[in-house]
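Lecture notes, part 5. Sequence design as translation. It can be helpful to think of inverse folding as translation between two languages: the language of shapes and the language of residues. The source text, in structure tokens, appears below.
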């Protein structure tokens, strides 16, 4: 994953390690939130928006 992220056009100051941690913690947090309160949102319905939000935060 780190090699892939290193060539992904990360924002200045965002290392491949930080990008990987951002992705992993976002996925884990989304899953934990949905498991705790499944009526709050649909992961399938929100997948694209959530992925865009994370990727926009770590890439140029």
């Amino acid at each position: 994953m780190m090699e892939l992220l290193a060539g992904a056009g990360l924002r200045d100051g965002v290392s491949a390690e930080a990008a990987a941690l951002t992705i992993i913690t976002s996925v884990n947090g989304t899953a934990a939130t949905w498991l705790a309160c499944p009526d709050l949102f649909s992961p399938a319905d929100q997948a694209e928006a959530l992925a865009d939000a994370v990727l926009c935060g770590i890439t140029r």
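The translated text above is only one of many valid answers, since several sequences can fold into similar shapes. The helical segments are 2-6, 16-36, 43-58.
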